[in-house]
Design a protein that fits this description.
The protein is built from 27 helices and 24 strands. It is α+β, with helices and mostly antiparallel strands. It has a 5-stranded antiparallel sheet, with helices on both faces. Strands 9-8-12-11-10 form a 5-stranded antiparallel sheet. The protein has a 5-stranded mixed sheet with strand order 14-16-17-19-18. The radius of gyration is 63 Å and the shape is rod-shaped.
Length: 926
């Protein structure tokens, strides 16, 4: 189907095809042949037939006028200057033919009308045959792609202008050839052509030839160009026959030339008429096609309307139409189901029936936006059903337009998302819960893909392995699993993928600082998401607790064995000591035998002393606990120790003024202090300092969890510290074993510390030993506080509300279990905590974190640098960094030993949370 005003349908723009050129050449060829035959006979006189002239001129006027009208019709559409020039030429020839006929002698009057003279018609003939080629030249010059330059302004003005112009021009020429006839040169004398005539006609013929040549070279040729060239050929033959080769009027050339002129005028007209018929036929075909298409579209529209109605009615979404004032005009079945109103109840009612109370402004805003032509898409809102229950819906509103484009209403699509939102909220809550579990889990949670690459890693990995989740995500698990446990882990993953879910196994992962961490893994495989899920529990604390438990079991077993041996040995000694007295009396008069009995009696006494130590270790000695003032007991013990230890050892009591009374056997406690003091003396052969301290202590749940043999509560601490040689770290765990000693043979039984251990445990207390080889040892005895004692002012001070903070604290502790405990406590106070196992790790963290506010470090640490040296190096790198020390040694002992300067901040282990919180604030404020 052609577009309206398609310029390719007009002859002036339609490219000429080969058939057009062939037809034109055929006509030119025939015309040329006929011209050639007529030329020899052009001067043959023939009868005068004035009617021929009248008929010829009339036909010419009609033909040229029709041609001009058809060309102007095309001009009205194309508006090209070239078409206007060509139409002007045809109008000019029509006007010239009329004047020529009126002035032709003998046609309407003997001498012609309008005052014509003998030269009038011949001059009009020259003007006529010269004016048309000029218009064709103008056309050829102005034509171009799609007709050339177009004329602006109304078409009627241009048409009226050329009509008036042609009339005015012909009026001027008529006036010249009639009124001014005598001024014109003579072209025709006595029926013969003059020389002037030959010059004028040659010029006119040259103009026609020039028009033909210019048309030929102005390519590409349109259909009308081809036929204009045929016209110009016939026009040349016309001039040649009727004005050059003939002799006078009414000879053969006269008649033949005018016949050529008539044909010339008819070629373009015929082509235009044929083209109009073709276009009319095409128009009829197109009209028929449009009618068929219209009928098809009507059927299609009806079918689409039926389908649309079916879709609307079958839609799961409520589809509602309403006017611009909110009156409902359509209500589908889904709307009935969603809102509860039937179509009969809803149509004609205001949309307010589904609006909640207080939402009138929202509806007015939506209607206003619809009036402005706005489309509202995916707008969440609340509506109510027939029962008044609120519904969550997603609305899409589109303006409804009339045929002329005017907005007359709105179409609304409402989707009920109440259940979806409820489900989504539940899902979001579940996802949030799982995310919180994932983020707060103390266990390590790992998610890997089917190839073993980490997809998700819980933040707990920082505390357990020292890595951040970003360090592991995207990497394969083989980079982090201990090589010896890699194959076992792979087997467990393969088993999980075979459907054996919830695999439980142990595997080691190297910590960032180099030590191995054993994790108990629970793993499963999810086929839908192609993921492995693992939960790993750090067994470090469990293993440490198991080690402590095994140690306790070992000591218990040794105690049971020792107690049994001591009991049986005591029975033997009872017999010996009982009978040796009888024997001693019997041999009193025999000095030699009496000396032997005394030796036996001394040996029995030493054996009894040994059994008492063994029973004390086995916690089976008879105790007589009572309320004891620890300060008084320590002072008395110090008096006993002065002569025993010698002058080279300085005894320094450090007693808490308001020390709680303890429930303990005083004699056994004195013996324990003396045993510890004697061990300290042996560790200081060249002299030194012995510090005896008392202190009130609260052992909290955290400390109790790391020492399963103790119950959280209030205790009285008695510490015996020396500046001796210390105990090697490898031997610390064995010092309480019976008969274990590092002294030379004959210098100790190895029962002193084991007796202290047994006595304290039997008294319901706790004993802890701290030692550093080359620096000294501190043994702390924790005895239960006597019940029924009022709270002291110091204790009340310690129970004030705990104050935390948000600063960043670096914890340095070599014992993993203690470090984890401290980190947990500090984070519970609100602080940001970093952790390191040694000085090297701590310095790395200090260099990488400029915002660390406090260094909290143990004093005694293995490695090339202890806590004091670490603090000095940290102060050199970060002068503003504050430091708080902690140690198993007491404050008095460690300062006295010279490891810390007097006045530094030290928090002695163990400590309660309130003491930790207080010291942190003091350190941060210092």
């Amino acid at each position: 189907m052609l577009a309206p005003n398609d310029r390719s349908t007009f002859l002036s723009t339609l490219p000429a095809c080969q058939s057009d050129r062939t037809a034109a050449l055929a006509i030119v060829g025939i015309s040329t042949a006929l011209f050639a035959l007529a030329v020899p006979f052009a001067g043959m006189p023939l009868a005068r037939v004035p009617a021929f002239v009248a008929s010829y001129q009339s036909a010419l006027v009609v033909s040229d006028t029709i041609t001009a009208v058809l060309l102007l019709s095309q001009f009205a559409v194309l508006r090209t200057r070239a078409l206007l020039m060509l139409a002007t030429g045809y109008l000019f020839t029509a006007a010239a033919a009329i004047v020529h006929a009126l002035t032709f002698p003998g046609l309407f009057a003997p001498a012609g009308l309008l005052g014509a003279g003998p030269q009038t018609t011949v001059w009009l003939y020259m003007i006529w045959h010269g004016g048309f080629p000029l218009c064709v030249l103008a056309y050829a010059w102005a034509k171009g792609a799609e007709g050339g330059v177009r004329i602006a302004g109304p078409v009627r003005h241009a048409v009226l202008g050329i009509v008036l112009g042609v009339v005015a021009t012909m009026a001027v020429f008529t006036w010249i050839v009639t009124v001014q006839h005598d001024l014109l040169p003579v072209l025709l004398r006595e029926g013969r052509y003059t020389t002037t005539m030959m010059v004028v006609v040659s010029f006119v013929w040259s103009l026609s030839f020039a028009a033909l040549v210019l048309l030929w070279f102005r390519k590409p040729h349109s259909v009308i160009d081809v036929w204009l060239m045929v016209v110009m050929c016939a026009w040349l033959f016309d001039i040649a026959l009727s004005a050059i080769v003939n002799v006078a009027r009414f000879d053969l050339g006269f008649y033949a030339g005018r016949i050529y002129g008539l044909f010339a005028a008819s070629f373009v007209l015929a082509v235009l008429l044929i083209e109009n018929v073709r276009l009319q036929a095409q128009t009829m075909d197109l009209l028929g096609m449009l009618r068929r298409q219209s009928a098809s579209e009507r059927d299609l529209h009806g079918e689409r309307e039926r389908l649309f109605s079916a879709v609307v009615e079958s839609s799961n979404d409520a589809i509602i139409t309403k006017t611009l004032d909110g009156t409902i005009t359509a209500w589908n079945r889904a709307a009935e189901r969603v809102f509860g109103f039937s179509a009969k109840e809803a149509v004609g009612k205001p949309i307010d029936i589904i609006m909640p109370e207080g939402r009138r402004e929202e509806m007015e805003e939506i209607l206003a936006r619809t009036r402005n032509g706005e489309v509202i898409d995916q707008f969440e809102a609340v509506r109510v059903n027939k029962n008044g229950q609120p519904l969550d819906v997603v609305l899409s509103l589109f303006p409804l337009r009339s045929a002329d484009g005017k907005i007359i209403g709105a179409s609304k699509i409402a989707r009920d998302i109440t259940e979806r939102k409820r489900t989504q909220a539940a899902l979001n809550r579940e996802v949030e819960e799982r995310q919180r579990i994932f983020e707060t889990s103390q266990d390590l949670i790992l998610v890997t893909d089917g190839y073993g690459n980490f997809v998700q890693v819980s933040p707990s990995v920082k505390d357990i392995l020292g890595f951040s989740p970003e360090d592991m995500i995207g990497h394969t698990a083989t980079e982090f699993i201990h090589p010896d446990d890699l194959e076992k882990t792979r087997e467990e993953m393969r088993a999980a993928r075979r459907g054996q879910t919830k695999r439980s196994f142990e595997a080691r992962y190297p910590h960032r600082d180099g030590h191995d961490v054993t994790l108990n893994w629970l793993g499963t495989w999810s086929e839908p998401v192609k993921r492995h899920f693992f939960i790993g529990r750090d067994l470090t604390e469990k293993q440490a607790a198991e080690a402590q438990f095994r140690q306790a079991q070992k000591m218990d077993a040794i105690g049971q064995l020792t107690g049994g041996v001591a009991h049986d040995f005591n029975n033997v000694l009872t017999v010996i000591t009982g009978t040796i007295g009888i024997l001693s009396e019997a041999v009193a008069d025999q000095p030699d035998l009496a000396a032997i009995t005394r030796l036996i009696d001394d040996a029995a006494e030493r054996g009894a002393q040994l059994t008492r130590h063994l029973l004390a270790f086995a916690r089976k000695q008879p105790l007589q606990p009572r309320e004891v003032d620890p300060n008084a007991l320590v002072v008395e013990a110090a008096k006993l120790l002065h002569p025993t230890l010698g002058e080279q050892i300085t005894i320094t009591p450090q007693l808490t003024e308001d020390a709680w009374p303890a429930m303990v056997d005083p004699s056994q406690l004195t013996t324990a202090i003396l045993n510890l003091a004697l061990n300290a003396r042996d560790a200081m052969p060249d002299g030194g300092t012995l510090v005896l301290e008392t202190r009130n202590i609260f052992l909290d749940e955290g400390y109790a969890s790391m020492n399963p043999d103790i119950i959280a509560g209030n205790y009285v601490m008695i510490a015996v510290s020396d500046t001796g040689t210390g105990i090697p770290a490898a031997l610390i765990e064995r010092v309480f074993d019976p008969f274990f000693t590092t002294k030379e043979v004959g210098k100790g039984t190895g029962l002193g510390l084991s007796m202290v251990f047994g006595f304290v445990k039997q008294s319901g207390g706790h004993v802890k030993i701290y030692s550093e080889e080359g620096h000294g040892t501190s043994v702390k005895i924790y005895l239960p506080r006597s019940t029924g004692v009022q709270e002291t002012p110091l204790e009340a001070l310690r129970n004030v509300p705990i104050e935390g903070g948000d600063e960043k604290i670096l914890i340095v502790e070599d014992d993993a279990l203690v470090r984890q405990y401290v980190v947990t406590q500090i984070r519970s106070l609100g602080y940001n905590a970093l952790e390191a196992a040694n000085a090297a790790e701590a310095l790395t963290l200090i260099d990488g974190n400029a915002d660390i506010d406090l260094l909290f470090t143990d004093v005694i640490m293995p490695g090339a640098m202890n806590g004091r040296q670490l603090a000095d190096e940290a102060a050199r790198r970060r002068p503003a960094l504050k430091t708080l020390f902690t140690s198993g040694y007491t404050e008095n002992a460690i300062v006295h030993h010279g490891r810390l300067d007097s006045g530094v901040l030290l928090l002695a282990k163990p400590y309660r949370k309130s003491e930790l919180a207080g010291m942190l604030r003091i350190a941060l404020a210092s």
